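Model the whole thing, not chain by chain.
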Amino acid sequence: MSDSVLYSIFLLASLGIIAAVVLYVVSKKFYVYEDPLIGEVEAILPAANCAGCGSPGCRAFAEKLVKTDDISDLFCPVGGNPVMKMVAEVLGKTVAEKDPTLAVLRCQGGCDVRPKTTEYQGPRNCAISAMIYSGETDCQYGCLGDGDCVAVCKFDAMYMDETTGLPVIISDKCTSCGACVEACPRDIIEMRPKHKRDLKIFVGCLNQDKAGIAKKACDVACIGCSKCDDVCPKDAITMENNLAYIDPILCTLCRKCVEVCPTHSIIETNFPPKKEKKVEAIVEPEKIKTDA
Amino acid sequence: MLKTFPKGGVHPPENKLTSAKSIKRMAVPKVVYVPISQHIGIPAEIIVNVKDAVEIGQVIAKSGGFVSSNIHSPVAGTVTKLDLIIDTSGYKKQCIVIRTDVKNEANFQEIEYPLVKDIILEPKAILQKINDYGIVGLGGATFPAHVKLNVKEGTVLDHLIINGVECEPYLTADHRLMLEKAEEIMVGVEILMHALNINKAIIGIENNKKDAIDIFKKLTQNNQKIKVAALQVKYPQGGEKQLVRALLNREVPKNGLPLDVGVIVHNVGTIFAIYQAIQHNVPLTERVVTVTGKKLENPANYWVKIGTPITDLVNEVGGLPEGTRKIVNGGPMMGKAIKNTDVPVTKGTSGILVIADDEASRGEPKNCIRCSECVFVCPMGLEPHLLMNLSEKGLYERASAEDIMTCIECGSCSYVCPSHRPLLDYIRFGKQIVKKLNTAKN
């Protein structure tokens, strides 16, 4: 009886020793050196794995940061300047400070202002409907409303507004990873500098049609009248293809253009006093009328 | 037993409402809108200016490269605008707008071209002329004809196949053309055989066009070189690869062309256009269009000038009936719904189909029940349900490995799916992405 007990103990013990030796040898033989800095940097990064930096995940980005000598071109949009600063300290390299950006929706053609002229029955997917035709309305530049951008947002920073049929960007949650910009087949979403207190002025339209056609398709379309261009004191507005574009760096947020725009296609966000506070990028045209 | 392709295929209701109606000539429109991109490949380059006077058949846009085609003015008149007009793609594209000169008699003359049988030109001159006269494949794909005919030296070519299948339901444009211009088409076939130095030609016609088969049988009675073959009625037999398989029992390699198995395929419409260009110096400025639909008062076939707004065609057949849900450019299987009737007729418009409410609905998509109907009907031997899932989930590499690019977009899978799944929509989308990835790789 005692023999069999001893026998079992001996067998198990020797198996354990053999396994330990094998594992030890293998781990020595196939040892891969890994820079401990990579782990350290990865711990600093936000672990969002959003690929906003261009690398497939935070680990890959950490490796890139450690291996690249000049990291001034690399930037984590989610962590922003504070995270990059910490990374720079750990690595002993210098990083360039970047203005934080935020996604804005350059279309405000909701169901009430942009009438539907056709009905789409295919799969509800922007990429597919853009491939098939120019959308349910007469504007071939505007939002298709099938929510590809909302589907790719990993931070729950977007949702579809059911009354307007347009996506809404929640500024507080947006990390400017850029996933929505890539997902949009119409390039409606633009990354613009955040400025102080998230004040922004931008043209909420991409319609390049001539005035009459654009206006017929959508009440709040930019008709390319260049009134904003004339009134801008800083030359921040450029007119191209019947469409105004406001350069976010030159713009001093004086709001003169917002007042002169006859179709209310220029959007201002988060301006306090006098004006009603607008958190979202979509503004009902009537509201702006009373404001201006 | 009649010949057909072995794999897959469907047989939708034929609904050839207009097969007994001879081709009428559409009135010349007051304004024509001529898109510069009516063919596959590089858009043509505009060579006229606003206010220029143009003659019928004058080149108004020059071929923009090798895979491109000249575009000729369909009317005599004045160029009024170079503008962006919605075309059949649903997007605004560059168009040449020409106002017809109502005083110019050339616009309203109906020329009866006599049958010219003698072929004078040398093969090279014929191919050059096909290029110059803007001939593209009129079966629907609008692939420039001269590219297809540009055979590298040393390629073994033994058969010319004439595609008179017209497997799309509703459409009868090719059918009517075969009945009314049979002799001209025969000459056209001879022209191509002469140009390519081929000794055998087969005209493939589906068995639902018995009158056309009879006519060509009579014409080819004593002809050793040109044969007619009746084919079983099955969609998509008009696809090149399916037709080659049906007639010659040769399998065109995947990602290959019929040329790889020594065959060139051309549509009867293209053959007639080639005949007109070579024997009568008439460029491609008009084509046969079937305007059809169950609710239409008077569906018919028309000779239509390229650039005629579809509105004119619809008015000609009695206007849009009540309850119209869709207007399709092309047939019901491969055609594409258009956004409005201001869209102009292009070289690729084989039919205008007006569908009413009851037939237009696509049905609510439900889950795949794994019945594998789509696999049975796929003429290319693909697994549409798998391809759809892969492209929906973004697994494009795998989709590419599963031969998504060999899909001919015939729509048989979507047609039979009992769960109304948008199979073709997703496959087409996947194809587009895979194509982009492939070009990025090279």
